[in-house]
Write a structure and sequence with these properties.
Rossmann fold, seven-stranded mixed sheet, 23 strands, elongated, 20% strand, alpha/beta, single chain
Amino acid sequence: MGCDEAKHGRREFCGLLAGMTVGAIAGAVKAEAGSCGPPPKAKPHRVTGGESFAPLPLPVTPLRRSEKKRPPAPPALIGKIEYGKIVKGTDERGNVYTYRDWTTDPSDIPSLMEKAKRALNLDYRGVPVTLDTFSWSPAETPMLYLTGHEGFEFDGNLRKKLYWFLQDGGCLIGEACCGKKEYLESFMREMNAIFPRKKMEILPPDHPLFAAFYNIEQVGMIGEDQKPFKSRPVIHGIDMYCRTAVLFSPYDLSCGWDGHRHDQGRRVWSDARGGDDAVCIGINMIACALACYQQGRQLASAKVYRDAEESSEEKFVWGQIVHEGDWDPDPNAAANLMKFSAANTALEVKFKKVPVDLGKLDAFRLPLLYITGHDEFKFSEEEVAALRRHLKNGGFLLADACCGRKAFDAAFRREIVRVLPGAKLEALPSDHPVYSAAGAGKVARAEYSPRLRKSKPDMDAPTLEGITLAGATCVIYSPYDIGCGLEDADCPYCLGYEKADARRLGMNILIYGMTH
């Protein structure tokens, strides 16, 4: 089967969504029209959904006595962007029809939303939107959806607005209808223009998208030759801090959502079950965006913590290593840890977080270094040599696999062997001083995130690994996330520590690094 029912139930998923707000959006873009054939007639929707779970009560407007009372429309979740020229086409019977590029699958969002309503027990709707009338607030509609066949181009002003929509917690879903190359290339080019320092990456198998509601390992697909095959889903993404804000499928999903298939193009499709595999991916996209919405809104405001009194003798600089992966997914973690440490220890900590280029590292200026991320990275030979000098001269390194991701874990384990050949990361015993450093007291037990507790229900002690040189542990590595626990925002799909224990453990590691 391409996708199986998620193990967690509706109540648990709905619990992730409390406190969110939604509404309506709009959008415009230059594009040449194209078609994957005459749009099929939309099927009537006679689905009886379960109890809806609106994020917040809808606004109540008093009705006039002459008005008929009717329930309010469900809140808008997805804005399908209208764009493209109105053109004429001719079907195989010679009938003339008009269409725009974005309309060739007219029932894609309505159909997907009906299926999502059943699966997630949430009642939302999709709306057609034009970007020239959009307020650009994700609080109105958290998701934008852009689909089509032909090439397109945004202007600079629109790129800026879309960037800030995503920065403020919004999500963009892009999909190449029929897998068209022209659209695919345009979408990639526009994302590169909007995010020049990032690149679209294929999401790894352990990305939360593939387990947000359905467990998706493989799906049915059809290539250009129209031959079916099985593959893990190919979804590209761009991360903003600790969430994926842009999702893009180079294989068609909308025809599967709309319930029809053409003998052309590349698509996600399950012959035995129609377009169900595409629907599973679509529902997971909705679930992931909803669950991470509040996190995105909170992470949009980066925090800075500095003590105004610069004359104190005790000043601590947190050096965060810049690498080729997503090196700063938790922008508030260091600030929150320092505030917590200042409030719970006698240290007069003056804090400043600085990005560190290992090629220019002054080992004695920055005694403590920190490295985190989700993705693969690799040090240059110059960076390897610099970090080796740092650690052998008494420096300290804390490494943290953000969200417990496998790609970062594999990369760090490989790179630290290059830095310290012959040294080995080993589990720190329960009596290691880091668990009882002055500050938070002894940390003998730890509570983990719900997602991690599901897979490892018996794990109740902190899990740290380290490398010891000259009698002192100079490298401490957490394969389970600490940084997300230090953020004020909840991270629903994280494999890591709960907030309270992340703070306690983080403070003990900090004090150990400062005093050893």
